[in-house]
Amino acid sequence: TLSDRLTSVLKNLRGKGRLSEADIDATCREIRIALLEADVALPVVRTFIAHIKERAKGTEVSQALNPAQQVVKIVNEELVGILGGETRRLNLAKTPPTVIMLAGLQGSGKTTLAGKLARWLKEQGHAPLLVACDLQRPNAVTQLQVVGDRAGVPVFAPEPGNGVGDPVSVARKSVEQAKHAQHDVVVIDTAGRLGIDEELMRQAADIRDAVRPDETLFVVDAMIGQDAVTTAEAFRDGVGFTGVVLTKLDGDARGGAALSVRHVTGQPILFASNGEQLTDFDVFHPDRMASRILGMGDVLTLIEQAEQAFDAKQAEQTAVKIGSGELTLEDFLEQMLAVRKMGPLANLLGMLPGAGQMKDQLAQLDEKHLDRVQAIIRGMTPAERTDPKMINASRRQRIARGSGVAVSEVNDLVNRFFEARKMMAQMAGRFGLPGAGGGKS
Ligand code: GDP
Ligand code: MG
What we know:
By secondary structure, the chain is of the alpha/beta class. 56% of the residues lie in helices and 9% in strands. The protein is built from 20 helices and eight strands. Residues 110-111, 134, 140, 189 line the site of magnesium ion. Residues 104, 106-112, 192, 247-248, 250, 273-276, 280 line the site of guanosine-5'-diphosphate (GDP). This is Signal recognition particle protein. Pfam families: SRP54, SRP54_N, SRP_SPB. Residues 268-281 form the SRP54-type proteins GTP-binding domain.
């Protein structure tokens, strides 16, 4: 997976200064592969990666994230952005009925979607009318009637002898019928072909001209991968559309089609279909699709966690101890180890309001010094760590010998610890942290 590959590329990198060109290149190489594996079209991948590199170059290295994580974060943000950021809502006509026309290849899921959309619209308080304009295949009308029944939504279809035999006049009549029967939304199901062809496009364009839809939704099977781009371009040029619906997301497609279609046509993705049941349908969520394309929901979660610097539960426990002046050297060591994994120690105190001064001091401690502090605490017995008051002169000598430092350094650490603990407890009291004696303000 992408996460594994990134981990091996970035094992030895640390967050210092700016992201180096080499870091960015290495990370982008992996992301490029991930995008191609997700079936994003090559020209789209190229443009996208070029843009990411530009953006990554100007970025300061964060304290919480390593360079790879940071590039991934940028990529994720850009993906979510391209995929639409906030989901766009359906355009409703000022004067009902709102006309929604579905277009797409045969088998893309238009008829199924018509049912899903009708059910969803009904749930939103609308009174939709389904319209059968696929008169090409023998069973197409019946199929729409079946989904209409399931959704509890009426279907307008040509009847033998009622004079509306062609798709264009069915569409036109359906809008009149909708006005007459107080349907505020009309959903028009159209015919598709297995491939793009002139006749199909002309028919869709004729229906479009007859009813002037408020939304023309291009329905595309997420599993068709690279072909999504050519198909989308053909429909954009032949019919034009205002939004995209992705279907069959329950399959194993990584969803690159979404990015390609969106990138190439500039039209938003409004809905996602993920199954054969009427309820397998949702408005489109760009963030979910972004992590699906990257195939790294886990990495994104890790990034979020790293940014929070350390976990909330531990923070709470520590806060209680700080507030009651019970912080031990054991806690101190634990925190130090946890925070060292994440970045500078200063982040730990970043959690405490008003700890600015101490934060600066801690930021000045260099890594070597931290190693020695760690060695000293490791050289203490558990009892000493829990109750540092018991660390008398002879214990200090023993600890110094055991950890290879001068006694003065042990003295220093113990004294600084007591000072810090006192200061933190006072501060916690002032800011009303849990466990703080006089903090109930
Ligand atoms: P149309 O030719 O564009 O009208 O496509 P249909 O609505 O008839 O769908 C073609 C096939 O795909 C049918 O067998 C549907 O049950 C199936 N289908 C449609 N949408 C989905 C979906 O989101 N997930 C899955 N698994 N199957 C779907
Ligand atoms: Mg159909």
